[in-house]
């Protein structure tokens, strides 16, 4: 499947190959001394222009002329534009905007300059690609944000393309409940209000997560009963505050321990018992019976044991009518997991009559740390993987669809760089907010 897509892309690549042959022949002649003048090679002028797939305003111009050895040559990327020396190897040029541009190669030949020109059409991919949210009405398209990102440039894209909002970290317990009895909803309110003002669904993430538990909770000095009361108060306070506004909550996040697939021995489990999960879901259900409640975890597409452990948690919650959906965190890469593996979490979710959230999508292109910049080949592989993920999601029955959430906007903003300690480009927009090929892959999956 990957290969087929790759071939399709290569076929559709805008390759403007032009060959204009200018042959200037110098006749051999005898000079005054009777010696023979060397016969110069005929000059055959030709060049090739390739529009980049990754950045559609960028072209590569490759001088393929023959017979010009030792002669100076230069490019002009616009009509009568500045002269750019033709160095050995291909030349790159970035245009500011869409348009038709006359590209000229000039060779300074002994008999006078010779030139070859060709028009190239470049199209700003920003203009080419319609908004993601307009490409489907059967599920929401989500983005994770920080309150500091609700500025103009992020906001333009958020409003244009997305209709589901998740706080990347500011609706977690360590931020909303920094010390006992003192809630801080400053950032959470800013994000929720922004979403409401812009007609977005808001996904609450996440009430209980061992990684975002404040120290005072880990070191709670009261009895177990007081601990449970405190958690009930916390969940009730937060969910009530946003009742009717936050459509859905990840109540418990990542409860399963890697490798053993047992319940993590978090402070919540230690203080409230093995059934702490259903207690937390019950508190949330009581506070807002209309909110959709999700269980969210990672690696549950391919890790069969972890997937089974997830379904065990979920089946217990289902028996108590405390769960509405499963969030599969899609922290994936261009090679892995496979479509079949991804389909397995869909099948288990749908067969249980639950909603499927493809949460936290990012697609690493550099899992083996062999890149120092995003190559065109990897950008295309990422486009193909994103297309595959969205196609799988889109094929879910409508009743089980919910949202597909991307975990960050620009590549430079991804949490993965800190997490893995190596470069990567896992998101849909580059550092200057331009949609990447991955963005196009998302749209292609919905283009039917
Ligand atoms: C990450 C955020 O991206 C970071 O900004 C934050 O500092 C730590 O958490 N699984 C989850 C997300 O459920 O909440 C995590 O998000 C990424 C892994």
From TrEMBL:
Q: What InterPro entries does the record tag this protein with?
A: GH (IPR017853), GH10 (IPR044846), GH10_dom (IPR001000), Ig-like_fold (IPR013783), PKD_dom (IPR000601), PKD_dom_sf (IPR035986)
Q: Which domain of life is it from?
A: Bacteria
Documented EC number(s):
3.2.1.8
- The GH10 domain covers which part of the protein? 126-445
Q: Which UniProt keywords apply?
A: Carbohydrate metabolism, Glycosidase, Hydrolase, Polysaccharide degradation, Signal, Xylan degradation
Which family does the record assign? Belongs to the glycosyl hydrolase 10 (cellulase F) family.
Name-wise, this protein is: Beta-xylanase
